[in-house]
Amino acid sequence: MIRLQMCEEELKRLERERFHDPHPRVQRKIEAVYLTGLGFTRPDGARILQVSEGTVRTYLRAYETGGLEALRVFNPHPKTAAWDRHATTLREAFTAHPPHTVQEAVDRIESLTGIRRSPTQVREWLKKRV
Predict the structure, then answer these.
(1) 29-79: per-residue pLDDT in tens?
(2) Which of 21, 44, 75, 128 is a good FRET partner for 119, with 20 to 30 A between their CA atoms?
(3) Is 36 within 8 Å of 23 (Cβ atoms)?
(4) CA gyration radius, the chain
């Protein structure tokens, strides 16, 4: 269980910062920590912010280890799949010789790129990109 001990000065800083950060996602992270500092439980904070309890826990852990600066860190651009680097090659290969089954596509992707993915992942990837 995460228990944050905050002094009055720290709470005031969070209160100021929760509306002044330019990114709404960071504001929400700061708000979660601020609510916890006021004595709200994690489920209450999650309900108020309309996020999961696990998300609030993640925010609290980040604050616990890195303070306010840790809450400001996030990646607005999600990681792209490793095989996206090979999208052109795969598209050309599958256009020239379409796979008959998903398993065949799995095997060909592995032989062309060295990347092994499950049939479900390959099926979804093919729907989106080929």
Answers:
(1) 999 999 999 989 999 999 999 999 999 999 999 999 898 899 988 776 666
(2) 75
(3) no
(4) 22
Among the listed residues 81, 91, 88, the one whose alpha carbon sits nearest the alpha carbon of residue 116: 81
Q: Which amino acid is at 91?
A: R
Q: What is the pLDDT of residues 90-113, one digit of tens each?
A: 999 999 999 999 999 999 999 999
In the chain, the amino acid numbered 92 is E
| Helices and strands: H and E segment counts in the chain | 7, 0
Q: Are 37 and 14 in contact (CB under 8 A)?
A: yes
* Phi, psi torsion values for 30, nearest 5 degrees: -65, -40
pTM (whole model) above 0.70: no
Tokens of 45: 């904070």
DSSP state of 115: -
